[in-house]
Amino acid sequence: MKNIILIGFMGVGKGSVAREVVKHSDYVAIDTDDLIESMENKTIKKVFAQDGEEHFRALEKKMSKWLENSVKNTLISTGGGFYKQKNLKEIGTVVLLNSPFKKILQRINNHPNAVKKLKKRPLLSDLNKAKELYNERLPEYLDLADIVVDVTDKSALDCAKEILKKVKKYA
Ligand code: S3P
C-alpha cells in the first residue's frame, strides 16, 4: 500500500477520518503533530509559545524527510500547514479534506470539546486571521491534492470509505 497523506485546514476532521480509515482497512495511522509533540515532549501550543512558529515549521520539515525515507503503508495525518513541505508527493497519495471555512468552524463549535479544540490551535485564536489563512491556503491545497474529499455534512465513516475507494487508483 502506498502511503496516504491527509492534508486540510485545521479542524476539518483529519483525525476523525483517519481513525475511520484505520478501522476499515489495513492502514495504521500516524499524525505529524502527535509525532512532533512526542519528539519535543511538549504540546504544539507550547512549541509555538516557547520556541516560535519558525521552529515548529523546521520540525515539520524534519518530519517530512523522515516520512519520505522511512514510512511505508501508512495513513499520515498532517497539521494544516504541513502541505508546504516540498516532498509531499514523494511521501504518498495526497488526499485533501475540504469544507468551507464557516462549516469548519461549525464543526469545531458543535464538538463537546470545542473550547479545548480552539485553545490547542494557536492559529485559530484570531478568527479573522484564520479566515484569511484559509482563503490563502485553499487554492494551494487544491493544487496539490491527488484526491479531494468534500467532508461537508458527511460522516467521518463516509469520508473514509470514499478515500479507500479513490486511493485504489494510486496504489
Ligand atoms: C497548523 C495546524 C495545526 C498544527 C499547528 C499549525 C496550521 O494542526 O499543526 O497548530 O498551520 O494550520 P491541525 O490542522 O491538526 O489543527
General description of the model:
By secondary structure, the chain is of the alpha/beta class. Helices cover 56% and strands 13% of the residues. It has helices at 14-23, 32-40, 44-51, 53-70, 88-91, 101-110, 114-119, 127-144, 156-167, and strands at residues 4-7, 28-31, 74-77, 93-98, 147-150. The chain is globular and about 40 Å long. Bound molecules: shikimate-3-phosphate. Shikimate-3-phosphate (S3P) is lined by residues 10, 14, 33, 44, 79-81, 121-123.
Rg, nearest Å: 15 Å
Mean pLDDT: 96
Which runs of at least 5 residues are low in confidence (pLDDT < 50)?
Answer: none
Distinct small-molecule ligands in the complex: shikimate-3-phosphate
Structure characteristics:
171 residues, alpha/beta, 5-stranded parallel sheet, 5 strands, binds shikimate-3-phosphate
Give the helices and strands, then pairings:
Elements: E1 4-7, H1 14-23, E2 28-31, H2 32-40, H3 44-51, H4 53-70, E3 74-77, H5 88-91, E4 93-98, H6 101-110, H7 114-119, H8 127-144, E5 147-150, H9 156-167
Parallel strand pairs: 1-3, 1-4, 2-3, 4-5
Bound molecules: shikimate-3-phosphate (S3P).
Residues 10, 14, 33, 44, 79-81, 121-123 line the site of shikimate-3-phosphate (S3P).
